[in-house]
Amino acid sequence: MDIRALTPTYAVSPQISPADLPAIKAAGYVTVIDNRPDAEIPSDLHTTEMRAAAEALGLQFIANPVIGGAITEENVITQRAAIDGASGPVFAYCASGNRSSVVWALAHAGRLSTDDLIGIPARFGYSLEWLRPTLENA
């Protein structure tokens, strides 16, 4: 598992397994957001299994499946609500961490500078420059 802390209160990661959840909790995260649609992954990593494992550890679990290239306004609203409503640091995952970075940036449009919304994920290899016009017009 590779925790990539975009901010002190929000991290992204490539796909995790139930076995990773104790380390996520030990790292101080209290909410886990699954940005991966079940159709992309093996059944042992589906939302139902991940939710049960996370909740058994006392972690809040939010399913917000984001389809690559087809992020919806609902995805952004759900991500923003999960981040804003969390009682502590948030950990989000998808296939590579990119979609979790994109919905974070969109959820923070107008709250942080466009340069930060693009530059912070870039430190981890996520290129969000293509989002600049959307972020600037938020």
From TrEMBL:
<dbReference type="InterPro" id="IPR036873">
    <property type="entry name" value="Rhodanese-like_dom_sf"/>
</dbReference>
<dbReference type="Pfam" id="PF04273">
    <property type="entry name" value="BLH_phosphatase"/>
</dbReference>
<dbReference type="GO" id="GO:0016787">
    <property type="term" value="F:hydrolase activity"/>
</dbReference>
<feature type="domain" description="Beta-lactamase hydrolase-like protein phosphatase-like">
    <location>
        <begin position="2"/>
        <end position="110"/>
    </location>
</feature>
<dbReference type="InterPro" id="IPR005939">
    <property type="entry name" value="BLH_phosphatase-like"/>
</dbReference>
<protein>
    <submittedName>
        <fullName>TIGR01244 family phosphatase</fullName>
    </submittedName>
</protein>
<dbReference type="InterPro" id="IPR029021">
    <property type="entry name" value="Prot-tyrosine_phosphatase-like"/>
</dbReference>
